[in-house]
Amino acid sequence: METLRDCPICGTTISDNAQTTCYPDGLFPGGILRVVRCSFCRISFLNPRLTLDENELFEDENDFYRISPEERDRQLVALMTMLDSLTVYAPRREKLLDIGCNRGVLLAAAQHLGWDPTGVELSSVAAAEARSTVGVPVYASLAEIPRTDRGFDLVIAWHVLEHTLDPVTFLRDAGSLLSDGGVLALQVPSFDFVEGFRERGQLGSIACSVHNFYLGEDGLTAVVNRSELKVKKLWNSADDLMLTAILATRESSTNVWRRATDALSHARHRRFA
In Å, how far are 148, 162, 209, 235 from 205, measured between CA atoms? Predict the structure, then answer.
């Protein structure tokens, strides 16, 4: 366990009277989750929270993703449909990175659709299973992925951002792996609909011991704005209670100036040719 003294997003000191909401969780030490809202950036986060080592241990022992062959086949079809819906935003259907790939069902779906997939998985148990069943590279972290000039056309982080200890750094690192024109697709349970989760008897799907951040539309946008990425498309759905976003690299002012200069030079050349 670790207790934060400062907001992990903006660094503002957490005051004793900070807005705090408590949720039950029998797996968390003491049985109570305390979600604090920063008085400055307004991001909500778990405090105290599990350490990275404890999160890894939890994922290694988690039976949630141990599914039957029949359920795996059902998920495979659903994920192929999901990937098809995301492909429209990618520059090409070639290299794909699945962050938080677990046991590799999405990697397998990507293979079926002609992608060249790579995975990242914190749990060594799940990563080993993904490698053996799908036969593709699976790394323990983003830092371990070999850097190439090519990059990934589609990076997927489905239900990952809320688990990170530093979502801004995570987005920067993930964005640095994108190809020219590549996109990052992510999804988190929407904190804007926390009462919807409660009403459906699914509160544990959003308020749980391994969710370090609680992001609604405003919170996710604020986190993205602090990274090197920008929002291309965003859905905040009251139907499935999920917040989904397509992110792209934010073009630097240097690149904008270079493109404007090149366009002006080309126009002058055409005018006097």
Answer: 37, 12, 10, 19
Q: Which CATH superfamily is domain 68-257 in?
A: Vaccinia Virus protein VP39 (3.40.50.150)
Beta strands in the chain (DSSP E): 20-24, 32-37, 44-46, 95-99, 116-120, 138-139, 152-158, 178-189, 213-214, 229-236, 242-249
Q: Residue 254's pLDDT is what? A: 35
Taking the C-alpha atoms of 193, 173, 115 and 246 in order, what is their torsion angle to the nearest 10 degrees? Answer: 40
215 with 162: CB under 8 angstroms?
yes
**Whether pLDDT at 255 is above 70:** no
Q: Integer distance in angstroms from the first to the last C-alpha of the chain?
A: 70
**Range among 49-53, 168-172, 264-268 rated most confident:** 168-172
pLDDT > 70 fraction of the chain, expressed in percent and rounded: 89
Nearest CA among 183, 197, 207, 185 for reference residue 238? 197
* Predicted confidence (pLDDT) per residue in 129-172, tens digit: 999 999 999 999 999 999 877 899 999 999 999 999 999 999 99
- Total length of the chain: 273
Q: Which is it for strands 152-158 and 95-99: parallel, antiparallel or unpaired?
A: parallel
> Which residues, listed in sequence order, are joined to residue 154 by a DSSP beta bridge?
96, 183
The tokens describing 53, both together, are 């080592």
Say whether 116 sits in a helix, a strand or coil.
Answer: strand
CB-based contacts of 6: which residues, under 8 Å, 6+ apart?
A: 12, 13, 14
Six token digits for residue 21? 């909401």
DSSP letters, 34-58, are: EEEE-TTT--EEESSB--HHHHHHH
- In 3D, which of 182, 181, 120 has the Cα closest to residue 153? 182
